[in-house]
Write the structure tokens for this entry.
Amino acid sequence: MNYNLLHLMFILLFCMVGLDVSAHDIEVPNADGEMIYYSYINDGMELAVAGGDFNIYTYMKTLVIPDEVTYDNRILKVTSIGCGAFSFNTYLTAIALPNSVTTIENDAFDNCASLKCVTIPNSVTTIGDKAFRACISLDSVIIGNHVATIGNRAFDSCVKLVSVIIPNSVKTIGDAAFRTCGLTSVIIGDSVMSIGSSAFYGCRGLTSISIPDDVTTIGDGAFLECRNVTSVSIGSGVKSIGRKAFSGLSNLTDVICMAIAVPETANQTNQAFESSNFNATLHVPEASLEAYRTTAPWSEFKNIVPITSSGIIAPTATQQTTIVECYDLFGRRACMPRRGMNILKMSDGNTKKVVVK
């Protein structure tokens, strides 16, 4: 081989390697002596946690991220968990995120197969795409009350995640955000405006679905194949329901739709309630009864009844009492009850003490 060509290839290889190992700007140990890598963001005024050289975090089981770092006589606030910072780390079981973090970027914890518990601080406003995708051991998530966006596939395939409360701050639930999770209970915050395509696809542990009034759009396949759902409550603000949004709900007994104007749906192929139980009772506003009876696919329900002035009582997800917050006796917030005394705040407003042995 020509010497000059060989030399050129060597230089190119060196540059490629150099790009890989310079994915961070600084490295600073935390209070436990664990080395953490950071990249400068916002004109060098703040820091994002970055992936380390050759995945240096691989063998860390627990990690505490500080809220600020002192480096070169400067104090820099940590405001982001960077893209792919911990992705495919199979050892990490727990991580403490500081209240300084505002963004969890795309793929930040993607495929962290051993991660069990996450508390997302109230400071966080954005959970990026695939941020916690395929965290197959994740069984507890507390989403902070300032999160506005849950990204596409953010919790996709978190098969052990059985309960989630989406706070009132959230406006958008991304495509496939909770697809094929092990959810048996989900409470959707009152400010959510759009539910993405396949957002809760295949969540077969759910038995009821409640869509708040602020939601205007329910995407294609949003609740497709949630086979054990018996009741669906759709808020008054819904304007459009995508293809197969509620398809495959074979155990359905009641559908409550509070919208005065009949929501637009696909009424030809792949319609919203395809392969669901049309023997279920459809409850609609009294003033719109005839409109629902003459508009497909709503007209396919065998029993369509008005919601009278006395109203109806339908089982919904929001009627299930779940743990909203958990604290130990020292007032420290935890993802879930631990051994010893726990103070639990419940979704019905009650507070109780529970001893775990």
The two ends are 71 Å apart (CA to CA).
